[in-house]
Every structure is written in C-alpha cells, then in structure tokens.
C-alpha cells in the first residue's frame, strides 16, 4: 500500500514538474512598444505647442535608433538627422493616453539645448557599463545632416565639436567629458555611429562618414586616435538592399561594432557589405600603428547586410536588413567546433525572429540583465524618404522588440546562471530527491 502511494506521489510530482517551464523560451519574441509617431513629456502644458509653432518640434522628423536597457529602464536615442527634434537622448516611460509610451529627455531638458556645446547636440548611440551604471554617450555635435530631405532651404549645422560624455544613470550627473580634436573627428563631416567599451577605460567608436573609420579613445590618458582600413569602406555591389520588394541604395561604410567578451577583439562591418571583420584590441589601442591592415581578419559572410551588431557572452547578434529578421552567429559554438578563437570563422547563423511588418530595419541591439535581447525597428528605409504615415491611420511605424536569448552583455560578469537555466537545474534536483524518496518507500 505504501509503495503504491509512493509511486503515485512520484508520478504526480514528475508530471507537475514536467509542466513547469520558464516564462519565456529561447527565441520568444514580443513587441514591447510601438508608435505611429513619437512624442515627449513636456516641461509644461504650453511647451509642446510653443515648440511646434517655432519649429523645434516637427513630429515627422523624429525617429529613434539606439537603445540600451539598465535596471528595467529603456533608453533610446532620437538622432537629429533633421530639424525639429527636441530631445536626442531619452527614457521610454509609461504609455500615454493614446496608448504609446512617451519619451522623457535624459538626463533633463537642459541637456538637450541646441547650440550649447556643453549639452547634447546629436546622439546616435551609446553604451552602458552595467557594473557601474554609467552610460557612455557619443555626441556628433552636428545636426540636420540630411537637409535635402524634408528641410528645403536648410543646411547642415556644424554647431559643436564631437564629444563623449559619460553619465551616471543613478544621478544623471556627468562623470567624464572629452572633446575630440578636429584631426581625429572632423567637426564638419563626422558621423559617429556606434560605441563599445572595455574594462581598461577604452572606447571604440565607428565613424560612418566618408570611407569610414574607427575612433579609439583612452579615457585614462584622455587621448584619442583614428583607425582606417579598406575593410571599413562601403562596397558598391552590396549597397542595394531590398526590403519588402523595394530596393534601397544605402552606400554606408562601417557602422556596426561589437566587442568580444574577453575584450581581445572588436568586430565591425559596413552596412554596404556582407563580411564581418575583426581587429585585435591590442592593435586598435596603439596610436603608433598607422597601418592596421595586416592585423585585420575577415571572419566570414553574414546572411544579409546589417546595421548594428552586438556581442553577448557567447553569441553575436545582428539584423538581416533584407529579410526583416534578427540572426545570431553562434560564436562560442564555432570556437568549440573549430578549436580556436583566433581563427574562428562564421559557420552557424541562426534565425531568431522574423516579421515583415514590425521588424523592418532592425537597427540597434541591447542585452539586459535578465537574458533578453532588445532591438529597435525604426523603418529607416521609409523614414529617410518620407514614406511613413505619421497619422496612425496606417498603423504603427516604429517598434521595440524584446527577445529571450538567455545571455547577458559582454560587459556583464560572466555567469552560467540565467532564470531559465537555474529553474531547470532546480527541477532536476527536485526530480532526484523525489526519485530517492520513491526508492525508500518501495524498498
């Protein structure tokens, strides 16, 4: 009798455990937020109308690109590609009355003042050190860099030298500030695009202007230098990107940049290109090496052209622009199979999510501390030529996605424990315990 009861308990418990699972499985993707057009939390009831009347807020000229997440807060950039962008660095806050979240200028409205070189002029992207809670922000210093589209009669405004500002996310205060010299980052042509950092105080920044380049900054010595290489150039035969049966010519050089989790190499790629390249950080940090070409290595071809890229603890994530999709290169898997990180090539590219409507132009990526990958979808191919209906009658234009990938940022402390993996191990322990109790009851 006792044996039967024990067996019944075991079977019932195992059945219950088998039905328990993680809230999200790998690749589970959801649209967290969506907008037909962007709006902000204004300082007072008349500020929005005043900004609209004086041209400081032109809704059709506002689109987000960059994203980072820290302690549950989403930070996004709104590039000042055109006039009428009131705030270039923002937090995503609670939904408004009409359902879409609002943007709250970060750290405040004063830091968004156009023409004040102590404030932020144009932020394309940023990086967050999750261990310190510091945000490294790159400011191009120039606005209205696409004046011929939607701003007839206006010109590029080269307002301030390019700079890097480090913000404390807990206080909003500036903890570091550096202005780039003109011979490293041009005051009149730069397009500082994306940034990665390491644990030694270095920042590596892609510059999408001209033939492209990578700017390296040592925050300890406060010295910067510039790296160029033919691998950073746009390839004319890869400049045509077809999205939903419409071909766009996007001759953009080096854009995406990522850091390996051991901080030994940076990865980068032009938008107009399929190849992924790597350069040892030891070489990149050295301002005395004028020609890095012999140290650059072609890691392999991606399945599509891409904008931003991001490295986690194991995998490299990228958008497949021509496929409205997010893929990952299983770097750790390929290293294990090929036997060496220094010679590894791209062999395994895995589709994570695809959506032809809501994932057009996957732009920028972020990894949070809970194992989720975040990605912005701003539909740049339609925003640039003014092909978007901002009234909402055609549905949302801009989306933020959240995808469970069970890994953290390259900047996080290495760990093998995630929410799901920890639950799985607990389940295994419970099963062993129950089976042991069953053996006792049976014998």
Topology:
Elements lengths: L1 H18 L9 E7 L11 H7 L13 E4 L2 E5 L11 E7 L5 E5 L17 E7 L4 E6 L2 E2 L13 E2 L4 E6 L5 E6 L12 E6 L4 E6 L5 E6 L4 E5 L12 E4 L2 E4 L4 E6 L5 E6 L4 E6 H4 L12 E5 L7 E3 L4 E5 L4 E5 L1 H8 L10 E6 L10 E3 L4 E6 L2 H4 L14 E7 L14 H24 L1
Antiparallel strand pairs: 1-28, 2-3, 3-4, 4-5, 6-7, 7-10, 8-9, 10-11, 12-13, 13-14, 14-15, 16-17, 18-19, 19-20, 20-21, 22-23, 23-24, 24-25, 26-27, 27-28
Structural account:
This protein is α+β, with helices and mostly antiparallel strands. It is 15% helix and 33% strand. The protein contains 6 helices and 28 strands. Strand 26 and strand 27 (372-377) form a beta hairpin. Helix 1 packs antiparallel against helix 6 (419-442). The relative contact order is 0.14.
């Amino acid at each position: 009798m006792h044996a039967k009861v024990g067996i019944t308990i075991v079977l019932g418990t195992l059945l219950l455990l088998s039905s328990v699972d993680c809230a999200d499985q790998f690749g589970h993707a959801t649209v967290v937020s969506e907008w037909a057009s962007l709006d902000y939390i204004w300082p007072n009831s008349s500020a929005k109308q005043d900004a609209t009347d004086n041209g400081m807020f032109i809704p059709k000229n506002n689109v987000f690109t960059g994203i980072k997440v820290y302690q549950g807060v989403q930070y996004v950039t709104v590039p000042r590609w055109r006039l009428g962008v009131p705030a270039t660095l923002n937090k995503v806050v609670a939904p408004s009355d009409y359902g879409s979240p609002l943007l709250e200028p970060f750290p405040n409205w004063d830091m968004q003042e156009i023409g004040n070189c102590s404030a932020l002029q144009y932020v394309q992207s940023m990086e967050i050190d999750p261990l310190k809670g510091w945000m490294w922000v790159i400011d191009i210093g120039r606005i209205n860099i696409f004046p011929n589209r939607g701003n007839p009669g206006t010109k590029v405004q080269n307002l301030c030298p390019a700079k890097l500002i480090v913000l404390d996310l807990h206080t909003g205060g500036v903890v570091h500030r550096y202005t780039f010299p003109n011979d490293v980052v041009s005051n009149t042509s730069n397009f500082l695009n994306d940034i990665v950092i390491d644990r030694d105080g270095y920042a590596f920044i892609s510059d999408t202007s001209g033939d492209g380049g990578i700017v390296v900054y040592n925050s300890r010595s406060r010295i910067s230098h510039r790296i160029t290489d033919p691998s950073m150039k746009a390839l004319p035969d890869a400049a045509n990107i077809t999205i939903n049966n419409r071909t766009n010519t996007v001759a953009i050089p080096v854009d995406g940049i990522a850091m390996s989790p051991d901080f030994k190499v940076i990865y980068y790629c032009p938008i107009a290109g399929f190849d992924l390249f790597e350069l040892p950080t030891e070489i990149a940090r050295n301002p005395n090496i004028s020609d890095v070409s012999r140290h650059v290595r072609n890691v392999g071809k991606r399945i599509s052209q891409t904008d931003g890229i991001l490295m986690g603890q194991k995998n490299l994530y990228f958008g497949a622009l021509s496929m409205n999709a997010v893929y990952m290169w299983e770097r750790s898997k390929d290293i294990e199979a090929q036997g060496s990180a220094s010679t590894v090539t791209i062999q395994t590219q895995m589709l994570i999510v695809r959506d032809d409507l809501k994932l057009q132009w996957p732009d920028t990526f972020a990894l949070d501390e809970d194992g989720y990958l975040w990605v912005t979808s701003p539909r740049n191919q339609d925003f640039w030529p003014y092909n978007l209906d901002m009234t909402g009658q055609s549905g949302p234009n801009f989306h933020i996605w959240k995808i469970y990938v069970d890994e953290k940022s390259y900047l996080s402390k290495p760990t093998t424990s995630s929410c799901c993996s920890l639950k799985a191990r607990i389940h295994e322990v419970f099963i062993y315990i129950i089976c042991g109790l069953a053996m006792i009851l049976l014998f």
